[in-house]
Amino acid sequence: MIACTKCGKVETIVKSGFVRGKQRLYCKDCELYFSVNPPNPSTNKKPHQTTIVDIAKTLGISPSTVSRALNNSQEINENTRNEVIRVANELDYRPNLLAQSLHRGETHTIGVVIPDIQRPFFAGVVAGIQKVASEAGYRVMICQSNESHNTETLNVQALMASRVDGLLISHTKETNSFEHIKLHLRKGIPIVHFDRVCDELETAKVIQEDFEGSFALVEHLIKQGCRRIAACAGPEDLLISQKRLNGYKAALQKYDLPIETDLIFHSSFKKEDSLNALNNWLELSQRPDGIFTVHYANAIEMIMSLKQKGIKIPDEIALAAFGDDLLASMIEPSLTVYNQFPFTVGQEAATILIDNIINKEIFVPFTKVIKGELIVRQSSNKI
Amino acid sequence: MIACTKCGKVETIVKSGFVRGKQRLYCKDCELYFSVNPPNPSTNKKPHQTTIVDIAKTLGISPSTVSRALNNSQEINENTRNEVIRVANELDYRPNLLAQSLHRGETHTIGVVIPDIQRPFFAGVVAGIQKVASEAGYRVMICQSNESHNTETLNVQALMASRVDGLLISHTKETNSFEHIKLHLRKGIPIVHFDRVCDELETAKVIQEDFEGSFALVEHLIKQGCRRIAACAGPEDLLISQKRLNGYKAALQKYDLPIETDLIFHSSFKKEDSLNALNNWLELSQRPDGIFTVHYANAIEMIMSLKQKGIKIPDEIALAAFGDDLLASMIEPSLTVYNQFPFTVGQEAATILIDNIINKEIFVPFTKVIKGELIVRQSSNKI
DNA sequence: TCATCTATCGCAAACGTTTCCGAAAACGTA
DNA sequence: TACGTTTTCGGAAACGTTTGCGATAGATGA
């Protein structure tokens, strides 16, 4: 009366001892061992994702055997394995990653916290991260802090609650305490900083040539003949702002140009800020003849304003800025920039993080610098 | 010899019967009941995330009581609850969302599949999705298909394996079979389409005014005096391309203008495509005097090329395109566009999806149209 | 004094996997 | 026939949480 779970035949079945009190059977045709469960015909449950238990029941074997069959275990009969795979395909089995993650203690997911995905730099970084992550079999969970320290903290907590295997983060411009990071760092969770990093934490970091880049931009302006170069820096707390400002100062010093506080403005990346700065500079008795901004968007806003005012670029004022974008190349005059290769930044950061995750014990934090590139365009090309 | 788990005193402890064979104790000071576990001093395990079991052990109560204390259950003593909360804070307890999700059968996570996060439209959509999702307590998992149907399928599978509660998707431009979606739709997983939707599936959809938008753009060009308007359409398979092309044709028909196949080009959004199309049109015996493109990037590429060739915009050729971006407003001449409000699209899509998730039984799919806005700029302003 | 009620709490099952441990059959050897 | 070995599999625990089902002690009432 009992049929083979594979071929369905009855006449080929012979009893073959007992396993843990359950009658064990053997199909001579299929060379397959299995045991019988009391058939439960009234289990018309609602449709659900099939589990290894479902597979086990239809084949009359145990879930552990199914698990072994699907995980390339050595200690399993080839016939059984094939049967399991057949039924798994038939029932469209998909392993429940939640259960796997819970058991293994790892989710194969990395968390990303960025200030704003709508900024091309971060969108590029995210794209780079996703490329590397998906190639390595990791999923990506992205959160935006919207430049709010509080939101950033909540984001980090949420990602940690989801038990991400590691974290990639670029801080808010208002972030100057890092307790929300330290907490998890102490628990041993791999964290990699990029772009807006934090020096007081012992994490791996991916940064750009902030100093070198602004130095190159400002030196370029000087070589084009500028002698009074104004700087639109970022928020004072932000580390990369400081570095970029230092590059600006170093370039001036190299060419024996004075550093004038009148010409240095700390913006918070808002449009009003850059226009205020510009207007202040234009009202000085001695106008600047060059402008360096740490964010290309500020430079573009200034270009638009300068054009309205009828001030000639680059003849009266030349501009150069950090960060490239299609927009920088397409406005008139096109903007001289220092390209940061955001996609590369993302790729590197993800690569390092995954390395940190896999080799957690022997990993030692280090800092990777992504080389940038000076792209000279019309806004500074006087010659 | 036994001390209270709260105040630590020994003299206030009295025996208070048994619970399931375990000695129950009572602290007269704290009015707290608890029982004792055999102390296990040699459990110096490696540091790990604290669990409710850890809390239970330090307090001498059972995990279920801890769970009830942390979940606002009614049937628990207030003193016990407070103690649990105190210890939970002390040990920095964070609930393991994996375990919760596994038990509850829901992850409070929604999956998003988009072609390319670096395109401002999709970045805006994602930002809108994240805003709504985080406000509703949902996390967001984002995948890029990179316009590859195969990658899209893998993305969907990965998200489903992670047991996301719902899916937001905008299809690849090469996607014209939808088995990978149907499969999961049959299993009852809420799916909402946006932008590049699919008519053959019974899902909720968030779309733009594709027909009305291109109609408005083309009608605007006609009113500016254009009589031979070329169209740079999208991939033929893409539904929104067809709709937008229909809007173009309808506008021509309304004003009794002929539809000339010479003037219709199907691009795949690549730069070469748009330049090829432009060059073909310019070589016609009768050049077009207006160009409509379904993607603003194509229009911008054409503007750059036209300027190089010395062709005057809008006098010789006027342009108007779908989709707004900062770039469109800043190039010269600035580009007339039909703004799609990507952020709103994302917000609406997420809202509908979450509604679908929560009210799964009574939800009926519908289509929401996000109204757009014609923004007239220099590229078409002849008057 | 006894039975009943209420307030708390513990046990165990469940979610879906993986894996250690052991058990039995089959096989090989003497 | 009597062993030991190999092959193959099942049971059960574990991951961390929630929850139905009791169980107990103290309070209440008769």
From TrEMBL, chains A, B:
Superkingdom in the source lineage: Bacteria
CDD domains: HTH_LacI, PBP1_LacI_sugar_binding-like
Keywords carried by this UniProt record: DNA-binding, Transcription, Transcription regulation
Domain HTH lacI-type span(s) in chain numbering: 50-104
Pfam families, sorted: LacI, Peripla_BP_1
GO MF terms held by the record: DNA-binding transcription factor activity; transcription cis-regulatory region binding
The name this protein goes by in its record: LacI family transcriptional regulator
Origin species: Emticicia aquatilis
